[in-house]
Write a structure and sequence with these properties.
CATH architecture of the largest domain: 3-Layer(aba) Sandwich
Radius of gyration: 20 Å
Number of strands: 12
Strand content: 5-15%
Order of helices and strands: EEHEEHEHEHHEHEHEHEHEEHHH
Distance between the termini: 28 Å
Structural class: alpha/beta
Largest sheet: 7 strands, mixed
Mean pLDDT: 91
Helix content: 25-40%
């Protein structure tokens, strides 16, 4: 499949594609990447260039190609139990990355899910296969009971052009809004921004007029042009920020949202937070009318990303995670024949 290899790289990671922005940052690690695409259950096949360009030093492979590859992978990066089950016969160390809370996963799966049983099954299966678990935030790690290794995503603020904010409108980037309304506090979002110009961007085929960006350059230009960004989330189900929020902050946008214990926004400094729809609408109109204030608050948001979500910090942290995974794998006995797992697992991110 498609390849953009750089000569001289002698260590390769096998990486299941979950969502392109997160996988893209693995290009900073300095390893070659074999990225598994065309996975069942994903809304797109291949690599979605609308979200990010293919990482440097990477090639796209199918699952059958990955499973039969003669390479000795340095580590395998997975995102759910289905991924772990797929590579059960591969002989290399493996990492499971937790991208969502247990509570959010249960919300998406439906009331038939028993959260404690789901957590227990994951712990037992991780122990069985000898995987190392990395959570993308302490909030998500605590939800599943894995808090030993927390690696926040990384963003290079220099990837984003200077803020202009000439378009007097808010912006929100989100996929599959209709199926995640409760997680995203969408009723609250609608109450807050009724009558306020807001641009929605993302893969939402059931919402007329809402489309994903054409590519990363188009996404960055969209961020650059808008006045402020919006992120709302139910504190029981989802974190107070995601990669899209941090991207907007890196692009110099102030952020408006509900109060959330894990929000990186400082109220009145890098954005505005309120649980009162009328109050948040008032803050939105202030920023629509005062471009200079929005730019000043956006500078603070950008600085927050540089300090808390540094790509350099992500690189060092995840390289350490890989070495931990390798030590765990090579200091224990794992019988691949015993790794058939509890039936066919769902390819849902955890």
């Amino acid at each position: 499949m498609n390849s953009c290899k750089r000569p001289g790289t002698d260590k390769t990671l096998l990486v299941f594609n979950c969502h392109e922005p997160w996988v893209f940052q693995l290009g900073a690690l300095g390893y070659a990447l074999d990225i598994v695409v065309d996975l069942e259950g994903k809304y797109n096949s291949g690599w979605d260039d609308r979200m990010r360009p293919q990482p440097a030093n990477s090639q796209l492979v199918t699952l059958p190609e990955a499973l039969t590859s003669p390479k000795r992978y340095y580590c395998i990066i997975t995102h759910n139990t289905a991924d772990l089950l797929d590579v059960r016969m591969r002989p290399e160390p493996r990492i499971l990355v937790l991208h969502h809370t247990l509570e959010g996963r249960v919300e998406e799966e439906g009331p038939s899910c028993d959260p404690e049983q789901m957590k227990d099954l994951l712990h037992r299966y991780v122990d069985l296969v000898g995987a190392h678990v990395v959570a993308t935030s302490m909030f998500k790690g605590e939800s599943w009971g894995f808090t030993d290794d927390i690696v926040h995503f990384g963003i290079d603020v220099d990837d984003y052009p200077p803020y202009l904010g000439q378009k007097a409108a808010g912006l929100r980037i989100c996929n599959f809004i209709s199926s995640r309304r409760r997680i995203l506090c969408w009723d609250f979002h609608e109450k807050c921004f009724e009558g306020v110009p807001v641009t929605l961007v993302g893969h939402n085929p059931d919402i007329p007029g809402v489309e994903a960006a054409r590519d990363w350059d188009h996404l960055k230009a969209t961020l650059q042009s808008h006045r402020f960004y919006i992120h709302t989330a139910d504190a029981r189900l989802e974190a107070g920020h995601n990669m899209a929020t941090a991207e907007a902050m890196a692009a110099g946008l102030p952020v408006l949202g509900n109060r959330h214990p894990t929000s990186p926004i400082r109220h009145g400094i890098s954005g505005f937070l309120s649980d009162d729809p009328r109050e948040l609408a008032h803050y939105a109109r202030i920023l629509l009318e005062d471009h200079d204030l929005a730019a000043l608050m956006g500078q603070q948001a950008r600085q927050t990303v540089a300090e808390r979500f540094s790509l350099v910090r992500f690189k060092h942290s995840f390289l350490r995670s890989i070495e931990i995974a390798r030590r765990k794998w090579y200091t224990r006995q794992v019988d691949p024949a015993a790794l058939s797992g509890p039936g066919q697992a769902a390819r849902t991110k955890v």
